[in-house]
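Batch job 17 of 40 flagged for manual review because the log was empty.
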Amino acid sequence: MTGADKLKYHAGLVDKMAAALGVDLEEAMLRRDGPTIDDLTDAVLRCTKCPDPVHCAAWLMQRSGKVGDTPGYCLNRDTLRHLSAR
């Protein structure tokens, strides 16, 4: 996987994980108190360091509807919890 492909893959995981928690990242960014592009870039870069992205992708595919939390190993857990609490 090239560097660009890896970033796209993890950007997709971040977006899907946010959506599973009921967070629309585009909408959140438009809010005055929402995350900045730098915040989302940091989230994607953290995701590239995930210990188990294959399990994460499978976990996301098994879910339907809103979930209460991310898997325990998710490096963006705190960030996504904060966004879902808004």
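Reviewer: the log was empty due to a logging misconfiguration, but the result itself is present. The helical segments are 3-20, 25-30, 37-47, 53-62, 77-84. Unflagging and moving on to job 18.
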